[in-house]
Amino acid sequence: MTLAPDGAVALDLFHTLQVPIQTPVSPDERWVATAVFSLTTVPRAATGTADHVALIDTSTNEVVAFVPAPAGAHGVNWGPKLGGGYYAYVTAQHANVLTVIDPDPNGDGDGHDAAVVGTTLLANGSPGAGVTDGVGGQGVKPLPLAHDGWIQETLALSGTGALSAEVEGWLALLTDEQKNPVGEHGHELTLTLDALSAGSIADLAVVGAAPGAAVFYAASLVGVGAGPCFPVLGGLCVDILPPFILLGSAAAGADGVAVLSVPVPPGTTSIDVHLQALVPAGAASAKSQAVTATIQ
Questions:
Q1: Pairwise pLDDT comparison (183 vs 249), residue with the higher score
Q2: pLDDT for residue 251 is more than 80
Q3: More confident residue, 266 or 134
Q4: Class of CATH domain 190-294
Q5: Which pLDDT does position 199 carry in this prediction?
Q6: DSSP single-letter state for residue 194
Q7: CB atoms within 10 A of CB 209
Q8: DSSP string, 219-249
Q9: ∠ at Cα 174 (117, 169), nearest 5°?
């Protein structure tokens, strides 16, 4: 998360002379943006600046981008992006600007291309203001507040006369996902299965899917472990190892349960099969736990 002047990572404060400050999670629980404050003015090789914002992909819990930031990066918060997704807004202790960062500019679920997409001067030239007008690393309060539990309460007031025309206009621009970000990062899926018997039919069942979601069932004969990450899954990484066998898909019912009946080939007794269920839905993708079963 912090960087030494030569770009080295995983070092302590005495080597990097940097400290992480504010670390908010995006309303869809997809990203974490951490303002990294530098105690020096030495530019880092990865960013060309002394300070930066480290972007974490929550599907892998790894830093996927180091985004340059003005001196004294400190305050961070998330606000809705027109058309879907969210921007990270960053303030600085030693610069009077607000930096706008898009964690996924092309919307493919991969944050490696995160970038600064805008800068707003905070100095307003008011009477008596000096060169420090707008500096200080202020906390950021985006309106409307977009996180789960806040945005729904604001939307509940829409049309009641309790909100100004300006706020009503903001709410009208939100997407359906931004209006209700709960569970956006993915429902927790639970995979269960019948005993696997060679030459018979086995039911694979998933609980916890969104109603109507297409649940795909994958198998591996290699094992479980840190599998590849896929853009179609919003960067989500599977927990079984390739090569994969796609067993089929089933739609989840109103109760969130999806069941797929699969034939178990004859002559496969004693083979270990590693299974996982997946719901590809971009940033809202989900996966089950990996399950290992031995064919009887």
A1: 249
A2: yes
A3: 266
A4: mainly beta
A5: 96
A6: P
A7: 26
A8: EESS-BS---B-GGGTT-B-SBPSSEEEEEE
A9: 100
Q: What are 64-73's pLDDT values in tens digits?
A: 999 999 999 9
DSSP 9: -
Distances 27 to 149, 158, 184, 250 between C-alpha atoms, Å: 10, 20, 8, 29
CB 118 within 8 A of CB 105: no
Q: Look at the pTM and tell me if it is higher than 0.85.
A: no
- Residues 62, 3 contacting (CB under 8 angstroms): no
Would you kindly state where each structural domain of the chain is located, as residue ranges? 13-179, 190-294
Backbone phi, then psi, for 57, in 5-degree steps?
A: -90, 115
- Phi and psi at 209, nearest 5°, equal -80, 155
Give the number of other Cβ atoms within 10 Å of residue 294's Cβ: 11
SS3 call for 65: strand
Going from the C-alpha of 120 to that of each of 6, 67, 92, 139, the distances in angstroms are 30, 17, 12, 15
CA angle at residue 186 from 184 to 188, to 5 degrees? Answer: 135
How long is the chain? 296
Q: State the Cα–Cα distance between residues 20 and 52, nearest whole angstrom.
A: 10
